[in-house]
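Re: duplicated header lines in exported structure tokens

Our pipeline writes sequence and tokens for each protein into one text file. With two proteins the header for the second block appears twice in some exports. Here is an export where it did not happen, for reference. First protein block:
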Amino acid sequence: MKRLFLALLSASFCASSAFAIVGGPWDSNIPGNPTPVNPSDINGTYTATIKGKNLAGVIRFSSASIGTFSLTASGSTAIISEMNVTGSGTFFFEGTSGAASVDTVIDLGGRKIAGVINGASTSLLPVILVRPPTATTPLTEWTVLNNIYFNGAFSARFSNNWATNSFSGKGTVAASKFDFAGFNTDLAANPATADPNNHLVVVPVPIKIAGVKASDTIDTIHSPSFTISLPIVTQILP
């Protein structure tokens, strides 16, 4: 009986060892993965999704600067600034699509990530607002550019399991936009004086981030440089 027990124990040990050889932390637990990822190496490219109320986005960033971010302000005065950032992102936000710069700091020893987001989303078509005529005021129309400018920050933690490259966290972005619902409420209560210029707001939007280290190589191909034009959320044309 003792010999049988030792034989079964030896077989179990060999089977466990063989299973560990097939998949492990250096090949993302995928047998035969041709592009292994080393979770203990801070260098590389990280990808993640960002979610919030009426917001969905995908970001890509690296452990070092991968490109130059140019920020252009549209309007009568153009302001152009450049800075080196670690990544970029694309977003769909309240019916508008846009892009953002993403700058991050990765603390692999502390299992933490901190990031800053700066971007804008633009609607292709303007919105026409109408204030009907009253006994004392004429019919008035405004053209509103339904654009959104947003910036904010997030923090995330890596999984406690070093063999797992995943991370997750939370943050907040502040969205500068036009409040259509607020204008409609104002128009119903004040049909002679409602003005869309009084309904430009900044709204905090909580976000969640979840991602993974995708490669040990810094991604300089996908994001060598990118430009974001700030939307004109303050321009309301009569």
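Second protein block, exported in the same file:
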Amino acid sequence: MSSINLKDEVQKVLAGEWKGFVERHPRLAEVIDQSLLVEQATASIADDPDYQRALREAEGMEWSANVAVELVSGFVKDWLKRLL
């Protein structure tokens, strides 16, 4: 699998999801430090056993970076849902 920077990908996904998050949770969005949110999401996802297993499987199958980015996107979206 091509290497990706998890933090960069998390930041991209969160940026894409932010507008919807603000619409659903305007008061919470006002007080959240987005850089801290990226750090917390990155750490949480990196430690997730399902994410680790998916990475091992991806390496064995030689998935492309695009597939890895899609994988990260799914984990970030799930993480945001669990945040609330």
